[in-house]
């Protein structure tokens, strides 16, 4: 809600020439954008939320949580290295945005677990389904960037929305899981038979 609400408010502050379908979210925080602090603050707050989620998501594997946190930090650095005049051209901005997109898309690959008590959001099928969906959306975004077909802003918003919703879905699945596995690391199936 913070991300979508933030880019909606920031877009509303821009001149009428701003087109949310054609113009990127980064353009809202670019040097020269009207009230660029709004989207810059949103990048920081959303990154902080993802960091807290990564730290608190104990049922997920540590490596997946670390990738989620790394993607969040990279997303925060997007605000520290804004685009120039809303037209790109910032190598550090592009670098951190790419790392952020990659981390937020890849973290489920390192977070999944096996076994009956595993929350559905951390099961292999759900995690790899989420990754596949995000990779398809990122490919659409990249195709829009390269081709200049005029929907790069829409593609970026769909990718960003998906990357914001998936951690929430995983958290909800953990909250709905049986209380014996909520909040505790889930054991791999191979270790269950060795447990007393």
Structure, explained:
- This protein is mainly α and 196 residues long.
- It has one domain (21-185).
- It is 64% helix and 0% strand.
- It is built from seven helices and no strands.
- It starts with a helix and ends with a helix.
- 40% of the residues are buried.
- Residues 180-184 and 186-196 have low confidence and may be disordered.
Q: Helix proportion of residues, in percent?
A: 55-70%
What does the main sheet amount to?
Answer: none
Round the mean pLDDT to the nearest integer and report it.
88
Residue runs with pLDDT of under 50 for 5 or more positions: 180-184, 186-196
Proportion of residues in β-strands: under 5%
End-to-end distance: 44 Å
Tally the helices: 7
Structural class: mainly alpha
Specify Rg, calculated over alpha carbons: 18 Å
Quaternary assembly: single chain
Shape: elongated
Number of strands: 0
Number of domains: 1
What is the N-to-C succession of helices and strands? HHHHHHH
